[in-house]
Amino acid sequence: MKRSLNKNKAFTMAEILVAIAIFSTLSIAIYQIIRTMQKNYTFTQNKLDVLQATRIIMSGVRNELRNAADKPQVYNDRLYIPVSDNQIIIYYFDEEKKRLYRGYKENMKDQDPDVSEMRPFLFNDGQILRFEYDLSYRDSNSFVESEMTLNAKVWCKVSMKVLYSIKSEKLDDEEKAKIMASLDTEKPDERVKSFSMTITPRKVNWQLQSTQ
After folding, report:
1. Cα 151 versus chain centre, distance
2. 182 with 189: CB under 8 angstroms?
3. Is 150 contained in some domain?
4. Nearest 5°: CA angle at 62, between 60 and 66?
5. What is the DSSP code (8-state) at residue 113?
6. Are the C-beta atoms of 100 and 93 separated by less than 8 Å?
7. What is the value of pTM for the model shown?
8. Is residue 43 in some structural domain?
9. Residue 200 and residue 154 in contact, taking contact as beta carbons nearer than 8 Å
């Protein structure tokens, strides 16, 4: 009688195979869920890192342009923002490394600081694809307009294109070249995000010197 009970309690080979199949299916499902969650977390974290670094850059440039003590200028692909009588902030974007730098000098006649002396921003090399600036005026050789007309036309525009959802070091050279080529098309790569702002300086004492 005892032997019969023990025999009935034992697992058959078919039951063991079914149990293994169920366990394997559950394990694969759990692994896929964890992998998806990890991928979504990395994707979200990358975007947050980009947004935070971009906010720091844009906020700094905006405040400096708004409070410029003299005309911001662009020379040799560098943006010069005079913030006081003895300090000029310089922004330089290295096209080859795709890295943005910030430095300063006391006077426009002084020699520009070397790139090694300028502070790089938080982005890794290659994360910023483009950093561009445009001014509503060009030089001081044109005619001077009335103050009312001029104040409505003086502005500084800054724009950035960055890899938004992926780190640059995760891409190979071929993929990076493909993304760069897409920037000038109607539909840039979906991993690229554009940021831009147009600033009108608060101080107007120098704006009469600006020309269209």
Report:
1. 31
2. yes
3. yes
4. 120
5. P
6. yes
7. 0.73
8. yes
9. yes
Q: Is residue 98 part of a domain?
A: no
**What percentage of the chain exceeds 90 in pLDDT?**
36
Residue range 95-136, pLDDT digits in tens? 999 999 999 999 988 999 999 999 999 888 889 999 999 887
Q: For 23, which DSSP code? A: H
DSSP state letter for 185: S
Task: Check: CB of residue 89 under 8 Å from CB of residue 102.
Answer: yes
Give the pLDDT confidence score for residue 143 in this predicted structure.
44
146: tokens are 């009335």
How many domains, in total, are found in the chain?
Answer: 1
SS3 58: helix
Angle at 127 between CA 93 and CA 44, to 5 degrees: 145
Whether residue 172 contacts residue 179, with contact meaning beta carbons closer than 8 Å, is answered with: no
Supply the range of the domain harboring residue 180.
30-67+123-209
What is the Cα–Cα distance from 168 to 100, expressed in whole angstroms?
Answer: 14
* Angle, CA 102 vertex, CA 101 and CA 106 arms, to 5°: 140
| Structural domain contains residue 203 | yes
Q: What is the pLDDT of residue 212?
A: 38
